[in-house]
Specification:
2 copies of one chain form a homodimer. By secondary structure, chain A is α/β, with parallel strands linked by helices. In chain A, 47% of the residues lie in helices and 17% in strands. Chain A has a 6-stranded parallel β-sheet with strand order 5-4-3-6-7-8, with helices on both faces. In chain A, α9 links the parallel β6 and β7. Chains A and B meet through α1, α2, α5, β7 and β8 of A and α1, α5, β7, β8 and α10 of B. The structure holds a DNA duplex.
Chain lengths: 202, 202
DNA sequence: AGTTATAAGTGAAAAAAATCACTAAAATCA
DNA sequence: TGATTTTAGTGATTTTTTTCACTTATAACT
């Protein structure tokens, strides 16, 4: 059975929430509380969880550790994954040092920029390279995820390089949409659009 | 007639795309091309646009300038809006200097942080203040949008302060969900979740 | 031990969203 | 000028998603 796309997104959020609850040593959580935490309804949470075949306990809710475990299994979130950031402007360097990624299972192992000056100026524990080395480094290190934080005009070119180097997924922070082969998992965070979507509801 | 939420989001994306096309002096655009640019189908684009009452031209498409104009009208995207960033860590300072916001109609007029050291260290043309001054500054300057980039544990408190100070909308980059009064437009960008949503589809 | 209250599970219904299929208009071409 | 092609507009249909309503289980309480 294939899981609807919205359900996958919500299950990822539930996974994140379970992580938080687990750290607080909370053992059980109800569909209602999960719903509040991820911004949906209890019905939807129950349907979503039932879709992956996990069952909870009457009057107690879902067992935090085991639900997280099973979600991790189904959603492929159990293994640490390697990622890289391309474009070391302000946003890129901020992402390079976003400590939470590592705790959450994403290991940023490389940064790339086209400017040699920038590469020399950055001091971080993560290796930084010239974009010229991107394809080599990404394929050598088996980096699975590419995060694009370059200006619009270079976004497509970088995406193509990442794909050639063998990444499975791309997260694009640049202000333009890019085209990638349909077997690449792709998504985009458009910061301006996030603000516009809010303002449009004022 | 009230416009569905998904439609609003897509119309915002279309608005962004029209902005790009306008700068290239492109006069007309088809529903098909818009669909490709924002990642949907031509049917959906036509339905969405018809919902706001704009009509296009047979065999030419939609007139870029006038569609953008009308979208701006309907979506409240015509006036420059004031925003502030709370939390001047790496991500917050990156957002503080994200030049594109200004071009796109969002004027970041203030930054806030709880650490005086951090405030003194930052050099940017934007005024930075202590969080203690948040409520005063936000209400004095009529800031409508608050962008939260503080650690989890302070996110709710900052949201409450922003709401008290009178913002209409909040964009939350912190790793936890927060609760705000339902008349506040709220959305969240969860960076870890963005990566997880990709990895879950591998 | 019996009662009550809470919370999952789930088929059915409703609502929402997307897609289709067709019409109409107009630009282009022969 | 007439045929053809492109593209919007839209009611109908289909699909998807969400919500509801009800059942069942069991923990907690009296």
């Amino acid at each position: 059975m294939n899981i609807p796309s919205n359900t996958i997104d919500r299950l990822c959020k539930i996974f994140g929430q379970l992580d938080i609850l687990g750290k607080k040593s909370i053992e059980f959580v109800s569909s209602k509380d999960l719903a509040i935490a991820i911004g949906t309804t209890e019905y939807t949470v129950r349907k979503d969880i039932s879709l992956i075949g996990v069952t909870g306990f009457t009057r107690k809710g879902y067992e935090v550790v085991s639900l997280k475990e099973q979600l991790g299994e189904k959603l492929n979130l159990k293994t640490q994954r390697k990622a890289c950031i391309v474009g070391l402007g302000r946003l890129g360097t901020a992402l390079l040092d976003y400590e939470k990624f590592k705790q959450d299972g994403f290991d940023i192992v490389a940064g790339f920029d086209s400017s040699i000056n920038k590469i020399e100026r950055i001091h971080t524990s993560i290796d930084v390279f010239s974009v010229a080395e991107l394809e080599n480094v990404v394929s050598q290190c088996n980096i699975e995820l590419g995060i694009i934080a370059v200006p619009s005009e270079h976004a497509q070119d970088i995406a193509d390089k990442l794909v050639r180097a063998g990444v499975k997924g791309i997260l694009n922070f640049s202000p333009v949409e890019i085209n990638v082969n349909e077997n690449i998992i792709y998504s985009r965070i458009d910061l301006t659009n996030a603000l516009r979507s809010i303002a449009a509801r004022f």
